[in-house]
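Incident review: delayed structure delivery

Summary: a single-chain prediction request sat in the queue longer than the usual turnaround. Root cause was a stuck worker, restarted by the on-call engineer. No data loss occurred. The affected request and its eventual output are reproduced below so the record is complete for anyone auditing the incident later.

Affected input:
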Amino acid sequence: MTVRTLLYADDDENDVFLVDRAFKKAGVSGLRAVANGRAALDYLRRAAQNDSPVEYPVPYLVLLDQNMPFLTGIEVLAWIRDQPMYATLPVFMFTSSNQDKDIAGAYAAGATGYLIKPGSAEKLVELARIIGRASAAERIDPLVIQSAAAYQPRPAQTSCAY
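Output delivered after worker restart:
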């Protein structure tokens, strides 16, 4: 069985450590973390070139922190949506901001969903399990991920076709 890759971009080393640990505890493999928005674009460009599909497999899902150096999560999301290869790639903002303007901005930019980082390790592990179950499906159902946990905000007024 091929391990599917989930790309996670976040500049906070502690968050990366906690997410990595939660995915391992949930039994979900394939998490690939990068340290900022520029690194996320570099990864996605290499995956698109398909020169090294083992080293840079195309992700089945992307989690983006909102505020990162070099390029923000919204800037990375805008680039992803401009690439024909990635136009329908599920991209979730995964951030600590619960500000309505941030949520609306993410959906306006084409986010599949908006996930607020959970405040406990247990909720993070549960979210990792949900993502892991969704990854086993042929097609990611964003509603399964978005609505699975009580700490998710409801989508902003803006709708998203992804």
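Verification: Residues 5-147 form a domain with the Rossmann fold fold (CATH 3.40.50.2300).
Action items: add queue-age alerting; document worker restart procedure.
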